[in-house]
Amino acid sequence: MTERVAIVGVAQTRFAPKRVDVNYGEMAYEAISQVLRDTGLTLPGDVDNAISCSHDIWDGQTISNIGITDVIGGHLRSEEKMALDGTTAVYYGMVGILSGEYNCTLIMAHTKMSQTNRNIVNNVAFDPIYTRMLGFDYTSAAALQARRYLYKYGLTREDTARVVVKNLANARHNPSAHQVGVVTIEDVLSSPAVATPIHRLDIAPDTDGAVAIIIASEERARQITDKPVWVLGIGSCYDAHYLGDRDLANTFALEKAAGRAYAMAGIKNPRRAVDLAEVGEEFSYQELLWMEGLGLCERGEAAKVVASGATAIGGKLPVNASGGLLSGVPINVAGLNRVAEAVLQLRGEAGERQVRGAKIAVAQGHSGFCGQHQCVVVLGN
Amino acid sequence: METKTEYQPFEVDQHLTARGNYWAGKAGSRFFVSIRDKKKLLGSPCKTCNKVFWPPRSICTFCFGELKEMVEIGPLGTVETFTVVAYAEPIHPRPAPFIYAVIRLDGADTGMAHFLDEVEIDQVRIGMRVKPVFATERKGNILDIRYFKPL
């Protein structure tokens, strides 16, 4: 039975606002066929388990993986679906390998946000008895969290706007990104208000795309690649569902998930150990909040760290060198994209967005409004 | 790679309409009847954890103990956070712009997310004291509170 699990291949579609040319299975296959080509592996022979990651309501089909078992090599074989963020699919796949049941697992996340209305879809995530009827969606809920966070630490919209400026500039170096460019703090501040304090440019745009990775046991990984990226630690944690149950400016679940991941990786001081972070900022304020929850800085200090330039690509601790979710990554796919970007960095294959000498990376994903469920993956080369 | 196709992309329309009726449960049933018939708000106390929950529930979030009692909470409360929503969606029961807030009702340890109204948008503050405005015709749902307004 293996002690370690490695990521041996990653592939991503180009992320686009609207893919009219493919259905979701065909889009998923673009990433799957690419990762198979890159690793030299074939379906069905080399891969003994497959996990897909999406959400039924986005796909318009109950248990939506039943419609795409063919493209993921699941026909008459093992295939299961993770209906949480892509990071959690990594967790699930890793458990299967560590148990000794599987040796080589294909994990694929896909979502086409263009095919329906995100606010109506996300409204269904709210409990039907007390909250849904009020009309909440992820953006209006996030706005409540953003306001609470800014209030608690005396921050301003300029502080969160700096995240947008940094990430969209980083995205210029990412060929997969679709929302890229040189924006100023003023551009962000003057973009239309959506749900205050969140404005249009503070929000990750609707995006279609898929990511596929292959993970393997240590022995199998060494056969497949000379550049394995090890999953050094992983942890997940849930917080309460109701908006009023949590102090929205706090990150208890993320702290616990990160604590578990760091402990597994043997990391005592993440600020010293971690070379780069890829975090799931569906909204600009979340990059700051998640940095704090990941222990990458003191509580309430992330805005200062970003303003200092330390999280830029050439900084001490680059955060979202890829451009993050603000550059256009679909919901559900977000976490697997964080993992894939971290892997590219650790293999030295991140092109113009490469962080020099990166050895340890942390990738974070979350599901539910205001980051209710958190999953943290620590990766090393 | 999404641009060049040798075919005319074809879109299949789907429109689902499903009516859902959800039983409110042990605590929720008492909450909704109380708000409908008496305009009184109920929460669930956990004596072990010394906390009172809204929404009312049958299991304590922290100690997993069964909660059988209910206590009256509010009706006054304090704004913990808020947002002005500028966009319109068919899921919204009110036309935009409108204000959402999380309100900590007096006597409760968790907040209630709801609407805020009868206040100028630039006058809303965290820490503001508010009270509920009940609907005249109450149906036993969360909109039996039309919104909260400043004291």
Secondary structure blueprint with pairings:
The complex is a heterodimer of chains A (381) and B (151).
Chain A (H helix, E strand, L loop, with lengths): L4 E8 L11 H16 L9 E5 L2 H4 L19 E4 L3 H13 L5 E9 L5 H6 L14 H16 L3 H15 L13 H6 L2 E3 L2 E2 L8 E10 H7 L4 E10 L13 H14 L4 H4 L2 E3 L5 H10 L8 H6 L26 H13 L13 E8 L5 E8 L1
Helix pairs in contact in A: 3-13, 6-11
Chain B lengths: L24 H14 L2 E6 L4 E3 L17 E3 L3 E9 L12 E8 L5 E6 L12 E6 L10 E6 L1
Structural commentary:
The complex is a heterodimer of chains A (381) and B (151). Helix content of chain A is 34%, strand content 18%. With 381 residues, chain A is an alpha/beta fold. In chain A, the strands form 2 sheets. In chain A, strands 3-2-4-7-1-8-11-10-9 form a 9-stranded mixed beta sheet, with helices on both faces. In chain A, a hairpin with a 5-residue loop joins strand 10 and strand 11. The relative contact order of chain A is 0.19. The model of chain A has no long low-confidence stretch (mean pLDDT 96). Chain B has one domain. In chain B, the strands form 2 sheets. A 5-stranded antiparallel beta sheet of chain B has the order 6-5-4-7-8, with no helix packed on it. In chain B, strands 2-1-3 form a 3-stranded antiparallel beta sheet, covered by helices on one side. The longest helix of chain B is centred in the first third of the chain and has 14 residues, at 25-38.
